[in-house]
Amino acid sequence: MEELPYRNRMDTRGTPADLPLDPAACERARQARDARFDGRFFVAVPSTRIYCRPVCPVQPLNAEHVQFYPTAAAARAAGYRPCLRCRPEAAPGTPAWRGTGATVARALRLIAEGALDRASVTDLAARLGVGERYLRKLFLTQVGASPAVVAATRRLHLAKQLLDETALSMTAVAEASGYRSLRRFNDAVRETYGRPPQSLRRTPTAGDEGVRLRLTCRSPLEWDPMRAHFARRALPGVEQVREDHYVRTFRLGSTSGWLSVRPVPGEAAIELGLSPSAVTGALPSLVARVRRMFDLDAEPSAIAGHLGVDPVLAPLVARWPGLRLPSAFDPFEQAVRAILGQQVTVAAAVTVTARLVARLGDNLMGAPDGGPDRLFPTPEAIAEGDLSSLGVPGKRAEALQTFAAAVASGALGLSADRGPDELVGRLVALPGIGSWTAEYIALRAFGEPDAFPASDLGLLKSEAWGEERPTARELAARAERWRPWRAYAALYLWQAHGDGRTKSGERKRRP
């Protein structure tokens, strides 16, 4: 694993510690324009008041003329503006493990989804279950900027990307990037760049299909394992998976439409295409969900370095480097799939869920030609719908409707804002949902990196164990050393299990 540009490393459990930047390591990475450090820190030039990525093509200044910041928000809080050459808004996301424990990481994900575009920091702290002062302290210590500055930086970066890569009007850019008015958008751009938004516009690349955005990540980006995951679970009418293309319908609040994802050849990036109906204030949440869905903010080298010291996982990490954790676009949809899919194969679960979509889902207006055209049923539709003849036991159908009714009424908040353990506790309190199902929902619905369904048969029977396979209790105990990336350990064990079963000719079951 490459050298990290921080003075301290992670402790033996992989828990983030205080991570001040190491100027010497940052300087070496800057001089080499090492792409592995892109997005891990930013370079500020006091004389010009500009901050850049370490891969900026401009001739690097001497070390005494630059300063280093851990995040773009920290540089912005110090009074610097983004470079127009290297475009800091296009850098890979800051690694999620950079926060204090999981609280800052979850807060950053919520801010990326637009949590502070219409709400306050007090509201955000309440969602996370911490005090406002404590949250501000965590951000200042670990991110280098307050939550409000992080949110403002996210809005500005998204707006700049929309100006560069789309033909959207200024009003549409302002709304899509989360500004409350065109005036606030214009003021923010003028204050940062010293010029109006129109002067920043590049040659647009949008076509008739709506908006197309390039989402970057850290290398390697292994498309085939993710494509295979979604292909095996593709819901007819809702999803379509091809060799180099994923398309699905979505409903997000009052917005419905479709999105497409394809890998960018030769780059660690994907291209996100959105229907015209998606170009609204829901865009930040859409982008954040797709990044989570394809795990674009993962730090493959850090995860591999941590899990690779385990003798069982080491050969798996070497065999499948850079595995990412695919998760669902819609947590409710994934939870329904998990409940319907208990104790059956992937194919059977898809068949039953497809019947549910055909019976209770709505048609999508403006569906892409030849693409999916059905929306996944709402919680209300499932809670009140007829689930007879779906092909599932009556108790399971009853459990599904109880779950859907709890979500529809607001009695069950389907979120992992306060961590996977808290979510699992709320789920298992419902009839018909056991610990395995709840852990699987936390892992696949929210991409929680430390969720771990220790009782899963695929994990217990993985070929990685050889002849001496552990019990669920033994596996849970062993997994403690894999924190905070137990979900990735599960991914590697599942990969070995599926690979071995395929070779032996056995029928593959979940995950």
What features would you describe in this structure?
By secondary structure, this protein is of the alpha+beta class. Among the domains are: 1-73, DNA Methylphosphotriester Repair Domain (3-Layer(aba) Sandwich), CATH 3.40.10; 99-165 and 168-203, Arc Repressor Mutant, subunit A (Orthogonal Bundle), CATH 1.10.10; 331-504, Endonuclease III, domain 1 (Orthogonal Bundle). Helix content is 43%, strand content 10%. The chain has helices at 23-32, 72-77, 103-112, 121-128, 132-142, 147-165, 170-176, 182-193, 223-233, 283-293, 300-307, 314-319, 331-340, 346-360, 379-384, 394-409, 420-428, 435-446, 457-460, 472-479, 486-504; strands spanning 42-45, 50-52, 67-69, 81-82, 211-216, 239-242, 245-252, 255-263, 269-274, 362-363, 374-375. The strands form three sheets. The chain has a five-stranded antiparallel β-sheet with strand order 5-9-8-7-6. A four-stranded mixed β-sheet has the order 3-1-2-4.
